[in-house]
Write a structure and sequence with these properties.
heterodimer, A: 483 residues, FAD/NAD(P)-binding domain, seven-stranded mixed sheet, 18 strands, 33% helix, globular, B: 85 residues, mainly alpha, Non-ribosomal Peptide Synthetase Peptidyl Carrier Protein, Chain A
């Protein structure tokens, strides 16, 4: 589209990820003149996709959380379809098979039937099952979408119910890995969102991955007449008297808008405002970044006896969710095999995929020169591959030493890739490679400016369904409801 | 405008914003929330559609007036008549 200098909009959305798209759809649906500005050439933000050597990859997505089956009402997924007026078939969600949390000596399997987790806890922690049920009741009664709720420590509240720290850690690990921007704790509202979305609702994935979801959103937005400008970064937010007066774009144009919703992160947004210091809110930059290895196999994982959808692992005596001192902390992480979903008609992905995620140190990865960067990627790829193998059925029963184990995996491998905190910052523009953004969220989306609001990761509804609901809620609350 | 016509307009809007709801037996005097799975986001959409399709404004303070089909009719008929006058 052609964007002219001095163009005026009812609303500008900064960032074409899930939350920005959802906010824009809502506004376009009710006749607002809205434009999405996206710095990159590809939409999706934290959940984008790319192709390399003819293979298609998802960037972030292991699983769409919040899955509920057709007919189940009043849940985030159903609210989302209503608010965006999208038919649920368009997302083509296929359910997971089975996932687990694996710690030394104890495992908890879980699926999209919550009762499995309950029975697993009853077996492994018989003296905690009543406490767990009380926690579930407290979670049920909590309104996690209250925009004015205040910050509380999830660990503190959970520990009032569950007295075995091992079970607390096991319950928290998947929830933290899939969304927490805080080290070693979560905000209780965010814990509730994640608990419901992962344990009580569940995992699903479209056969084509995140592309299907992004394409659905983009098509919907286009059909509503919404405008979108790619490779168009906002350079400066010009302010006066606590209001945005104009947006200065990287290409030199200046546009104006009644409202601006930014999905690019709280600190990232504030640092664009000309009334803020360049280092504004520096202390609220997230510390948690990640590496992920992607291994393409010459067979389906199930042919190797690997049937889990996702394995959340920790092999240290306790679970530490914090910025590691070394490049990578391999003691805990997430193994994901996107093949292991129940695709329709028993469809199978063309190749086997094994993804392994672990926490990483942004400063260390970004201080390496090119040579060392490449070397470290190789070293940590091997370390994480080996770690994953220790939670998977051995490829060859007689392999005992690490070298044999790695060689056996490499014999099945046709391609590998790996992303690091450096890659994350390059593609998401999140400061310090902090995928889950700022540790302190702004639930009501308000900023120091009257017509600037935050949606997405730093508003704090987590997961990709959460991200879309965040965009919807902010558009409703700050713009549509206010006439 | 008759009460029935006004109720039908509201029902048509609900059918559009919540296509997964069964509207074949909605009772006029009972709160919509008590017989259908509607939340505040859905009520916002009813208000937005009234404005978009019929040019009727419902200020935020008046949202409670939309709680049942009967109360919708009582509240909206004067507004429809004002718009059509």
């Amino acid at each position: 589209m052609e964007l002219k200098s001095n163009d005026h909009f009812d609303a500008v959305i900064i960032g074409c990820g899930m939350s920005g798209l959802a906010a824009a759809i809502r506004l376009a649906m009710f006749g607002r003149k809205v434009i999405i500005l996206e710095k990159h050439n590809a939409p999706g933000g934290l959940n984008s996709f790319y192709s390399f050597d003819g293979r298609k990859f998802d960037v972030g997505l292991h699983a769409v959380t919040n899955f509920v089956r057709p007919g189940v009402k009043g849940k985030p997924l159903t609210k989302l379809f209503r608010q965006l007026r999208i038919d649920r078939d368009e997302f083509a969600l296929c359910e997971q098979k089975c996932s687990k949390v694996a710690f030394p000596d104890v495992e908890l399997n879980f699926s999209n039937d919550f009762e499995l987790l309950v029975s697993e806890i009853e077996k492994a922690f018989p003296n905690q099952i009543d406490n767990f049920q009380k926690l579930v009741k407290a979670i049920h009664d909590f309104n996690e979408f209250d925009l004015e709720d205040k910050d509380r420590s999830a660990k503190k509240i959970i520990s009032q119910y569950i007295t075995d720290p091992l079970l607390v850690d096991m319950l928290l690990l998947p929830l933290m890995y899939y969304g927490s921007a805080k080290e070693n704790d979560m905000e209780f509202g965010q814990f509730v969102i994640m608990f419901k979305s992962i344990y009580q609702e569940g995992f699903a994935r479209p056969f084509e991955g995140v592309r299907t979801i992004i394409k659905t959103l983009i098509d919907k937005y286009r059909d509503l007449g919404g405008m979108r400008k790619m490779k168009c970064a906002v350079k400066k937010i010009i302010t006066q008297n606590n209001n945005i007066t104009a947006l200065e774009l990287e290409n030199g144009d200046t546009i104006t808008a009644d409202h601006v919703i930014s999905s690019i992160g709280l600190v990232e947004t504030l640092q664009l405002c000309n009334d803020q210091k360049t280092k504004a809110e520096q202390s609220n930059i997230g510390k948690l970044s990640f590496v992920e290895t992607i291994t393409i196999l010459d067979k389906q994982p199930k042919e190797l006896g690997w049937n889990d959808t996702i394995i959340f692992f920790n092999d240290w005596q306790n679970f530490e969710y914090q910025k590691p001192k070394e490049l990578v902390d391999p003691r805990s992480g997430v193994i994901c095999m996107p093949n292991n979903y129940q695709y329709e008609n028993n469809n199978e992905l063309d190749e086997g995929v094994l993804r392994v995620t672990a926490m990483a140190n942004y400063d260390q990865w970004t201080s390496l020169d090119e040579d060392h960067y490449a070397k470290q990627k190789k070293i940590w790829y091997d370390t994480l591959a080996l770690k994953a193998m220790s939670f998977l059925k051995p490829i060859n029963n007689d392999s005992t030493n690490d070298k044999d184990k790695l060689d056996n995996l490499k014999k099945q491998t046709v391609y590998v890739d790996m992303f690091t905190p450096r890659t994350i910052t390059k593609f998401t523009s999140h400061l310090d490679g902090a995928i889950y953004g700022a540790p302190n969220k702004v639930k009501n989306g308000k900023t120091h400016l009257d017509n600037l609001y935050i949606c997405g990761t730093d508003q704090g509804f987590l997961g990709i369904i959460g991200a879309m609901l965040s965009g919807i809620s902010m558009a409703n609350y700050h713009i549509l409801q206010k006439n | 405008m008759t009460k029935e016509a006004c109720k039908q307009i509201v029902l048509d809007i609900i059918a559009e914003i919540a296509p997964d709801e069964d509207l074949s037996d909605v009772k006029s005097e009972i709160k919509l929330r008590d017989q259908l799975e509607l939340d505040s986001m859905d009520f916002l959409d009813i208000v937005m559609e009234l404005r978009k399709k019929h040019g009727i404004e419902v200020p935020e303070d008046d949202y409670p007036q939309l709680e049942s089909l009967d109360s919708c009719a009582n509240y909206l008929i004067p507004k429809f008549e004002a718009v059509n006058a």
